[in-house]
Amino acid sequence: MRVVEDPYWHMVDEWEQADTLRSISQIGGKAIRIYTFSIKKKSDKQETERHIYAPKDFDEEIFRKLDKLLELCNKFDTGITIPFIDRCSW
């Protein structure tokens, strides 16, 4: 839950993370699945935040948001699946 793909991509803040997990908990949900980590490609035209920019070059702020998400999942007793590999051709 780092970025929301609504008409205007935006970073998810702590309130949005907590609100989403609270809502999932209230309807009886037990787990969430987030999208894969974003990795900068040589062909990227725009400057967008990514989890990984190059080997040993990570975006610390994005991983802090992931840490907060894990903390909130624990608080709301919600499991989380984090896929590490994106196999889509795009």
Structure description:
With about 90 residues, the chain is α+β, with helices and mostly antiparallel strands. The chain has one domain. Helices cover about 30% and strands about 15% of the residues. It contains 2 helices and 6 strands; from the N terminus they run E-E-H-E-E-E-H-E. The chain has helices spanning about 15-25, 60-75; strands at about 5, 10, 30-35, 50-55, 55-60, 80. The strands form 3 sheets. Strands 1-2 form a two-stranded antiparallel sheet. Strands 3-6 form a two-stranded parallel sheet. Strands 4-5 form a two-stranded antiparallel ribbon. Strand 4 and strand 5 form a beta hairpin. The longest helix is centred in the C-terminal third of the chain and has 16 residues, at about 60-75. The radius of gyration is 14 Å and the shape is elongated. The two termini are about 20 Å apart.
What is the strand and helix layout of this fold?
Layout: E1 3-4, E2 10-11, H1 14-26, E3 31-33, E4 52-54, E5 57-58, H2 60-75, E6 79-81
Helix pairs in contact: 1-2
Question: What order do the SSEs take from the amino end to the carboxyl end, as H and E?
Answer: EEHEEEHE
Strand order of the largest sheet: 1-2
Q: Give the overall silhouette.
A: elongated
Distance between the termini: 20 Å
> Tally of extended strands?
6
Looking at this protein, list some descriptive labels.
elongated, alpha+beta, 2 helices
